[in-house]
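To the wet lab folks,

You asked to see what we're planning to order before we commit. Fair enough. Below is the target structure as tokens, and below that is the sequence we designed to fit it. If anything looks off to you, flag it before the synthesis order goes out.
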């Protein structure tokens, strides 16, 4: 597929899709309405963490094929992940825990917003050397 921008977008979508599915499966599998009885907020934290670990490896080695300094990139990736994490957990708190909506609602919203935000941040801020 190469280093072209369309190829990069396709690789990002594939890695992001798997990462998002990890988040969805873990979060719903643990949540009080769908699985092990854990509150949606805690389930979302676990799900996001599992997805983030896969995401870093996938985006570093597959999406952006980066050979940049791991120390530089992983710190920036952690910052980008923290933004997405806070968004997904905030949605779980507000929509599921406070508003009483099913956990599927904040999970669905986070599954759309976080990947879009992540592509922009990863491309422009995290894997900068690989994009040039």
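Sequence we intend to order:
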């Amino acid at each position: 597929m190469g280093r072209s921008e369309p190829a990069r977008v396709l690789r990002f979508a594939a890695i992001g899709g798997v990462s998002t599915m990890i988040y969805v499966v873990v979060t719903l599998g643990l949540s009080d309405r769908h699985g092990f009885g854990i509150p949606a907020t805690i389930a979302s934290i676990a799900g996001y963490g599992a997805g983030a670990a896969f995401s870093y490896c996938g985006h570093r080695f597959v999406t952006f094929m980066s050979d940049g300094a791991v120390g530089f990139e992983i710190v920036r990736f952690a910052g980008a992940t923290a933004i997405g994490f806070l968004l997904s957990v905030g949605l779980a708190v507000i929509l599921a825990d406070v508003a009483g909506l099913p956990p599927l609602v904040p999970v669905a919203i986070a599954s759309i917003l976080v990947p879009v935000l992540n592509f922009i941040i990863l491309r422009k801020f995290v894997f900068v050397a690989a994009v040039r």
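Structural context that might help your review: The chain has one domain: 5-131. The chain has a mean pLDDT of 88.

Thanks,
Computational group
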